Fold this protein.
Amino acid sequence: MKVVKLAAGLLVLLLALLVLITPLGPVPGFFIGGTPTESPETWPDTSAVHEITLAVQGTLPRVVIIWVSEYQDELYIVGSADSGWVNMIGEAAPVEMRLGDNTYSLMASLLEDGWQPMMTAYVEKYEPDYPDIVAGFPAVEDAQAAIKVFKLVR
């Protein structure tokens, strides 16, 4: 009986640890997984890809599950200006992106100007499948203070 209690306690501890280190929905984790892969010359079609996993390095690394959009053969991510992972990136920072089973080492670079077409592409991609969420976004012309748009540079 003592062994069963010990095994159950160990199982609970392992499950709690798993919850703490892997991203689950809006809760960030620490590990990205996937197979490290060289970035391709051109990205595969991501129109059907709804989510990617993004790892931002830091004292305490952050792994989040976020949306991604493609604009003129480049990939872009959008985050709330007050989000922890957005603040960790700042102007630019190395990141890892997991797309499917592949993980790519990239640079996330903040777009100070000219981000509006990328944000429009983002809204157009996700609005059909997530109308209630996208309806809560600020209008593109009013979004500058609320959001940050990053280009994922190879």
About this structure: The chain has a mean pLDDT of 88.
